Amino acid sequence: MKKITLSFALCAGLFGCTDKPVETPAPADSQQTTTAAPAERPSNLPDDAPVVKVVTSGVLPPLTFLNENGNLTGIDVDIIHAIGEDQGFKVELHKERFIDMLPNLEAGKYQVVISGLSPSPERIAKFGHTNAYLQNPSIIMHKPNVAVTDIASLKPLRVATMKDTTQEKLINELSVASHETVDTVFQLYQGLVQDKYDAVLQDKYFLEYIALNYPDHQMSVVEYDKTPNAADIVMYTQKGDQELLDKLNAGINNLQNSGEIDKIVSRYLTLPTAK
Fold first, then answer.
1. Domain of 91?
2. CA distance 27 to 203
3. 254 domain residue, yes or no
4. Using CA atoms, how far apart are residues 83 and 99, in angstroms rounded to an integer?
5. pTM for the complete prediction?
6. Per the domain annotation, does 187 fall within a domain?
7. Alpha-carbon distance 79 to 264, whole Å?
8. Band of the pLDDT at 225, cuts 50, 70, 90?
9. How many whole angstroms separate alpha carbon 150 and alpha carbon 148?
């Protein structure tokens, strides 16, 4: 399993620290466009294979983030490269601020956006979108000694969510005993370990990726949103680029049927086998 480094300034570690970890997205002025080193991605395609410009945020581990060498990696990154190999195009990968990805797609700077995005009605109206390539359901993570069965069972508990998220809105409407908002996924998990919170809400991949870095701390999980397609994750293309959209969907279908997407996910979200 690949791990993100979670370091703290002047901090004793997971239990005694309140500073933000480096997993926090970088400031806006530091998130300049970058291109992943092609040497990291050997390809079986001919030199004259078409090139597709793809953009991702690079700040959502395990889907998309920078490794210790400063290169883009993650589940989304591996999937788009695998689709390119399957469909005969090379991937030119770029990193942009999250808020700039879709506007720059619309402006023609990029051809594909892949960054853990859901198929919202607003986006679908402006862009082409693929079939779902992943399911990333919203979950409640809690300590095993706390009884949680659904959203309603959170009312008497101390709950935390990330700021400006659908989870924050949901908990505000529920009026729980205590609700705190934080800036990062790591702070949610840290608060559970430090017994600041009884339960936290966020998307499954993001919380589980942090938790897998700390296997000594057992947590329980409840999936709470059963709305059809609520967990879908899709890619976006420019409106009307049907040829590219067809290739992406064909690649998604082939990788799902072959089990390759499951293999990619397991590289980031499966604990190593004990030796």
1. 51-134+231-269
2. 23
3. yes
4. 25
5. 0.77
6. yes
7. 7
8. confident
9. 6
